[in-house]
Amino acid sequence: xxxxxxxxxxxxxxxxxxxxxxxxxxxxxxxxxxxxxxxxxxxxxxxxxxxxxxxxxxxxxxxxxxxxxxxxxxxxxxxxxxxxxxxxxxxxxxxxxxxxxxxxxxxxxxxxxxxxxxxxxxxxxxxxxxxxxxxxxxxxxxxxxxxxxxxxxxxxxxxxxxxxxxxxxxxxxxxxxxxxxxxxxxxxxxxxxxxxxxxxxxxxxxxxxxxxxxxxxxxxxxxxxxxxxxxxxxxxxxxxxxxxxxxxxxxxxxxxxxxxxxxxxxxxxxxxxxxxxxxxxxxxxxxxxxxxxxxxxxxxxxxxxxxxxxxxxxxxxxxxxxxxxxxxxxxxxxxxxxxxxxxxxxxxxxxxxxxxxxxxxxxxxxxxxxxxxxxxxxxxxxxxxxxxxxxxxxxxxxxxxxxxxxxxxxxxxxxxxxx
Amino acid sequence: xxxxxxxxxxxxxxxxxxxxxxxxxxxxxxxxxxxxxxxxxxxxxxxxxxxxxxxxxxxxxxxxxxxxxxxxxxxxxxxxxxxxxxxxxxxxxxxxxxxxxxxxxxxxxxxxxxxxxxxxxxxxxxxxxxxxxxxxxxxxxxxxxxxxxxxxxxxxxxxxxxxxxxxxxxxxxxxxxxxxxxxxxxxxxxxxxxxxxxxxxxxxxxxxxxxxxxxxxxxxxxxxxxxxxxxxxxxxxxxxxxxxxxxxxxxxxxxxxxxxxxxxxxxxxxxxxxxxxxxxxxxxxxxxxxxxxxxxxxxxxxxxxxxxxxxxxxxxxxxxxxxxxxxxxxxxxxxxxxxxxxxxxxxxxxxxxxxxxxxxxxxxxxxxxxxxxxxxxxxxxxxxxxxxxxxxxxxxxxxxxxxxxxxxxxxxxxxxxxx
Lengths: 419, 419
Prior knowledge:
The structure is a homodimer. By secondary structure, chain A is an alpha/beta fold. Helices cover about 40% and strands about 10% of the residues of chain A. Chain A is built from 14 helices and eleven strands. A seven-stranded mixed β-sheet of chain A has the order 1-9-8-7-4-2-3, sandwiched between helices. Chain A has a two-stranded antiparallel sheet with strand order 5-6. In chain A, strands 10-11 form a two-stranded antiparallel ribbon. In chain A, helix 2 (about 25-45) crosses helix 9. In chain A, about 60% of the residues are buried. The model of chain A is unreliable at about 400-419 (pLDDT under 50). At the A-B interface, helix 1, helix 3, helix 4 and helix 9 of A face helix 1, helix 3, helix 4 and helix 9 of B.
């Protein structure tokens, strides 16, 4: 029940236990095509260039950035948590002139602030995290595509933490490049990074195209300045997954089976239904931790559905609580990074763990462990508030939005004191 | 039965279907430690820095090269097949001044030729493939460590195709950096690259150490010129897998379970026994294809145990034969790359497929398909020769070496003519 990785859906693990196929077996190439199509639905895009990078979610980030950035390019990164810092760091290593803007952790940027920074720095690329798990905040993206388009800026986002649990529309929002991972709302294991690229981004990448000496054919044009990485050269991945089927890495078959099943489960459920499920269980968890008397970190207006950060009460040893929950109850929750390390717990409700029983059990256990750690805690306060939330949601005429209002009003609630 | 990826051992797939653990769960960090220890046995090394790169085998190559090479460094790559070209290409993209030496495909280099090239080019790094599946050849490495040591050159090899099926001793042979993959003799799926680094290589990598802004602590010293990649920054992987447990990528849990099981199976069998198993079944396959009247490609003195390349007989459509074998009999064999594409078939006997029944069934099917494709073929010639080979090996006093001599003498045998 941490901020991810979380339990995988058992159906994903079963899919991954299938025997391997050769990468050019027609059944395998058809699986690759199917998987591309499924991720078009997940990303809500018609981009031809929708594919998997064989590595964890930061491999997807690096593939996008190193393929889009030419050394010396200006890149603007609005940072509202640790993963914004990561985008900046990866862009720097790719040779970019990186410009960073900061807001306080727990907040997000206004569209105006980002447009102003674009005007000031005239970047080739805007790179922004959608949901930053380190703070649980989610940057609104819907207005940024138009801004980028007006200023001739490529628009990239990482949706590892948010995809599948929060509204996202790659095409409607004007995204040029999007990368993700499986280990959050997609209910799979870390190790595969789904990604999608607009025709505009693909043209930039194609202009740096390269074919390896070992498999080069007459007529292959080689870019003057190829992409700095072979493994992350997206022009090669386009040729591998596309009609030419030019050999690149040996496809990670088991990982592909898993990624395909993650997408199938979401698409079968319906993306809207999946997002609504995350909203429901996320709001029940929020109501529950507030019902226990805990204070929530950050701007709740911009919280992701699938993770909540709560202040660790004064006098309570956060790591000890986490240890007891994990070792005695088998439930993992997280802390955070940098300025929030040891200050907050992060509790997730995502993917296979966006379930009523998972929410209620976690709250029941948290109450017990808080009490044993010396905190004053209202018996049944957490589970009760969550159950109320589920009842509200089930009652006709009460929208999930309205239902969660009572929770939001409790943001500034008192922090628990240790007794 | 191709050159890999091949069927995974079902025990590996079962291990991969276990539920996920958080990456800092003590059980998980203990698995990480265990896996490092197991790969020390597989690589035959005492290197502390033995770890997994979360990506396919070429991710391991790129991690090693980009972490060891500073832009402008001279790198020497002796090329005897496609994967040598790949090392050169990855080194070039890492900013190296790459010097390449070639031998004809089907041959390997003498130690003298490599030493002479070192004297001529004075590289910081020698990068050479151990077994190059594109030609099935295996470069002898045992003498190169001393040569590199005398000339102050770092010594790197990729053993993806050879490890587990052929003798390999990282420490005794003086290797500084070694990378591998699971999809050959390790009987697992592509997607994880085990790797090991000598103290000398680790010192070079450590000198370029970097800690991400999001998790940096007071006292962390940052290198003036960090490694060009974040994902492949081995100094970060050292901190992640080592005592500091500094967060980097989200460990690919399922892949780690698989990599751990691959190594456990090999270590339980005993590395020598595993190599002997590959030698036995590889020599039976060699005897079998020669018994069918096929000619074998390359210098058999330097062939890997686990894959054989045979000339496609004149008048036979190689891809059609492969298609019939795959679609009608469910057996995959490969062709090769570049100058060998469409000229040879590559037939593997590796990992889970280094088994008597797999060898005999493949030979029985190949005979049927060859006959239907119009080739003249001796009925029972392949299976008979392989069975003789197994009988020889089982008879006391006949060593596997001696048993394979008869096969080696048939190298120059006549190529089949289509009838």
